[in-house]
Design brief:
Layout (H helix, E strand, L loop, with lengths): L2 E8 L3 H12 L4 E6 L4 E8 L2 E8 L22 E8 L3 H6 L7 E7 L2 E7 L6 H4 L3 E6 L4 H4 L6 E8 L3 H6 L9 E4 L4 E8 L2 E5 L1
Parallel strand pairs: 1-4, 5-8, 9-10
Antiparallel strand pairs: 1-5, 2-3, 3-4, 6-7, 7-8, 9-11, 11-12
């Protein structure tokens, strides 16, 4: 079974990404840290059972000897919602049933958190980078419960792609009613309920 784990906003500079999310949702971002293996850093925001991540290349980190995840090496422009991440309990089994190029497992850690991430060799996920990234948390710890809860909740994640039927067929065990996959130009759109009403991230 696959389950929605978090969504990611990419930015050229982490500070700009965090500011854009705060302007859109009215809540400051907290938490996060660095990923030395990927040369990136992030900030986080609780969405209840999920979380929102802003991620960017860390200018103070050593560049990895491989493409960075989320296709960040080719990212440019204003901060925007670029990726969605699903969790599994068995990384190898999930990858066997997924599309070619979904990624190879990497073992990662930050503080007390331990996880595996399937990272494509090219850095770019299938379906023009609009297929979800795959994560497997190890142990009981997950970032979402540790973040301050400002009452934000994901109401709907809209995934648009010209080959939406094939994209959806490649995720037969993902049944989250918040995820809607439809035909259209490649795009992501998240509708988030806030104490001040629904807000949208694109």
């Amino acid at each position: 079974m696959l389950r929605l784990d978090h969504v990611a906003v990419s930015a050229e500079r982490l500070e700009d990404g965090a500011a854009a999310v705060q302007a859109a949702l009215g809540v400051p971002m907290t938490g996060g840290g660095t990923h030395p293996a990927m040369g990136t850093h992030n900030r986080l925001l609780s969405l209840g059972d999920l979380y929102l991540e802003v991620i960017a290349i860390d200018p103070e980190a050593r560049a990895p000897d491989r493409p960075r995840w989320f296709d960040l090496d080719r990212f440019s422009g204003p901060p925007r919602l670029t990726n969605w991440i699903v969790a599994c309990d068995d990384m190898e089994a999930a990858l066997r049933h997924g599309p070619p190029g979904w990624g190879l497992p990497m073992q990662l850690a930050r503080g007390d958190y331990r996880w595996q991430m399937a990272v494509p060799e090219s850095g770019r996920l299938p379906f023009d980078n609009f297929f979800p990234a795959l994560i497997r948390w190890q142990g009981m710890l997950h970032p979402a419960p540790a973040l301050p809860d400002h009452g934000l909740r994901l109401a709907r994640l809209e995934v648009s792609h010209p080959d939406a039927r094939a994209l959806r067929a490649a995720l037969p065990t993902l049944t989250d009613p918040r995820v809607a996959i439809g035909v259209g130009p490649p795009a992501l759109r998240a509708v988030i309920d806030t104490p001040n009403g629904p807000r949208t991230l694109t």
